Amino acid sequence: MEITRLTVHELLELLEKKEITREQILQAYADRIREKEGTVKAFLSTYLEEAKQEEKEIEKALDQGEKLSKLAGIPIGIKDNICTKQKQTTCASKMLENFISPYDATVMENINKEKMVTIGKLNMDEFAMGASTEYSAFQKTSNPWDITRVPGGSSGGSAAAVAADLVPWALGSDTGGSIRQPAAFCGVVGLKPTYGLVSRYGLVAFASSLDQIGPITKDVTDCAMLLNVIAGQDEKDTTSVEQEKKDYTKALKKDVKGLKIGLPKEYFGEGINKEVKESVLAAAKKLEEMGATIEECSLDIAQYALATYYIIACAEASSNLGRFDGIRYRVSCKKL
Amino acid sequence: MAKVTKEELMHIANLADLNLKEEEIDKYLKDLEDILEFAEIVNKADTSGLEETGTAWKRQNVFRKDEVKEGFSKEELLQNAPDVSQGMFRIPKVMG
């Protein structure tokens, strides 16, 4: 059994049955990173020694009869634009090369509450602007399926790390496709939550009215589990929405019978890659065979999406990045 | 096709305190024209009869209670500063 191939819910089952230990899980990922990271280059920093220490403390707490979350000791990788106290947050930019956040992002507080262990910060396009992870100031991440190709972006480090079994799951951020597109390129599950579902406090802002943090996982069950951890209203993000705490794993059914799936015709027109079109239609056919209804539909406002995105994203980015003027953070042009 | 003149570009660059190099001018002209072209595309959308939408959730004026809470220490806030003097940010002179 290769531990790093398993999903988180499979790991939890084995932990429950006492067939593996948290220490073995952490060691398996440490070994896997040592073996493959040189090729994939998904991480901007790793914290394996700190993770081992945290794991020991978790065992100690459990030995003393403390009741911990079932996710305690499960490793996770975090995109490097999500603030982590005492761990670097560079946004893959030289401007923040030595930046250590004095606080944790709200999603990190949630993850720490579950006692999950952060084993590394993951590569991205600089300030999340890009769609290939080629525009990191530090390194290019490879697509684990074919290292001559890009993993997509901007959360390319997160998607590649999950696909290469370097982490069981990861957090990314999505402004205009930065979780969904690299997840697709790397063959893993990625979700951009509805705006307002997840707090943006501690996410280094790119385009504030579009940014959302979301999960990148090996399967849909893990995705629902990680969304359970990060979703919720936060008084530190006034755009986060008051909501009942939901268990998203309850929404997972065993089949797709009765599900109606729309294929917006605008997305299958001019400019679509033939292989992509064939793959999507083949997947639609498979879902139809499994009992879903496939229907062509129209999203005629889609023609305005890209233009609207570029106007909003550029305007908000130019305002948000004004804070990197070298006064509050470490790079400063001495001579003006 | 939206046109931006070189004079307009240099005026905007001046306002933003950017010293454009000669070889950058054409690139910036094209970037600005691209953005204007996007605006033209959006302008074609028929929005008659549509309600103005600021946010999808219709939340406005979100306030919290004005309570005294523990904040960050001075050391924490200055830990990433490029230059510190007597517990304050020290920056190069920016005004003439």
Keywords summarizing the entry:
heterodimer, A: 336 residues, alpha/beta, Amidase signature (AS) enzymes, B: 96 residues, mainly alpha, 3 helices, flat
Give the structure's gist in a few sentences.
The complex is a heterodimer of chains A (about 325) and B (about 100). With about 325 residues, chain A is of the alpha/beta class.
Characterize the structure shown.
The complex is a heterodimer of chains A (336) and B (96). Chain A has 336 residues and is an alpha/beta fold. Chain A has a single domain, classed as Amidase signature (AS) enzymes (Alpha-Beta Complex). Helices cover 33% and strands 12% of the residues of chain A. In chain A, the strands form two sheets. In chain A, strands 1-3-2-4-6-5 form a six-stranded mixed β-sheet, sandwiched between helices. In chain A, helix 4 links the parallel strand 2 and strand 3. In chain A, helix 5 packs parallel to helix 6. The mean pLDDT of chain A is 95. Chain B has a two-stranded antiparallel sheet. The two termini of chain B are 40 Å apart. Chain B has three helices and two strands, in the order H-H-H-E-E. Chain B has a domain of 38 residues. The model of chain B has no long low-confidence stretch (mean pLDDT 88). By secondary structure, chain B is mainly alpha-helical. In chain B, strand 1 and strand 2 form a beta hairpin.
Number of helices of chain B: 3
Overall outline of chain B: flat
Summed up, the domain count of chain A is 1
User: Low-confidence stretches of chain B at least 5 residues in length (pLDDT < 50)?
Assistant: none
Q: Order of SSEs of chain B, N→C? A: HHHEE
Tally of strands of chain B: 2
The pair of chains with the biggest contact is:
A-B, 32 and 28 residues
The level-1 CATH class of chain A: Alpha Beta
Determine the mean pLDDT of chain A.
Answer: 95
* SS-derived structural category of chain B: mainly alpha
What's the overall geometry of chain A? globular
Strand % of chain A is: 5-15%
**Average pLDDT of chain B:** 88
